[in-house]
Amino acid sequence: MGHADDRLGPPARLMRAAGATGGARQWLARLPMTAQEYLDRWELTPERVQTPGGRSSMAVLVHQADGTPAVLKLALPDGRAAAELTALEHWNGLGAVRVLRAEPEAGALLLERLHGDVSLRSLPEQKALLEASATLQRLWVAPPPSALPSVADRTAAQADGLRASAWAAETAGPLVAEALELRDALAPGPGEPAVLLHGDYRQGKVLAGDRTPWLAISPRPLVGERAYDLAWLVRDRADTLLASPGAAAILRRRIAKLADSLEVERERLRGWALFRAVEAGVRERSEPLLEFAALL
């Protein structure tokens, strides 16, 4: 095996996002060699690293030995790739990208190639919401037998992080308190059967495909109620929303439309949208996200 191709270096976004801890820095330093190892073992020919890329993984556009295009995804070996594989294999291409090969313990997935530069964000907003809703309905199936975290488990850890954040208390104390109160009320679930959730569903995570028009990518799967999975669709295009006159009214209409079309309770959707926006706003120290949450 030769040396790693110089073109296999991690993108700047990934370096910034994942380079904060010692373990991640070691993984980043070795990432070009790791990519080269999988290219050799799986007989892949690289085109280029996809940029700007994600914040916890690197995607290399490749061709398989028979010429079929694919994507080699190399993620931090923190267990997320195994959970992602569990969900993608359970969906088996229905509404989501297909897995071609995998070594989840090493964070390596070979995925079918989609049109990475064409997401639902390329569509007008109302059309994007319709397509996003239709795709998401295909993903809401009975959970796989493999253990995945629940909404209650994941949000309990996030709530602990909010309570421990001095920055949160100082910057947005009343909003954080409301978010925590909502989470405690929502987490037990509404009594409906729990389903497999994408966990990080938004317009940018749905790409154009060849075998079907739109397919979801990069789940952070968990099990729970459907309203949780809609929260980031409420937040999509928040920058445009925040700059619009009557933003709060527009947001209320968006929640009503999503809730009614997918048969979830409006207040549960509003509550999860607020909690998730506050949690992300505190974690990322993002005042625009907290401003958005305040509109809810």
From TrEMBL:
Record keywords, A-Z: Kinase, Transferase
GO biological process: secondary metabolic process
Pfam families: APH_6_hur
Molecular function via GO: kinase activity; phosphotransferase activity, alcohol group as acceptor
Protein name (Swiss-Prot/TrEMBL): Kinase
Organism: Streptomyces caatingaensis
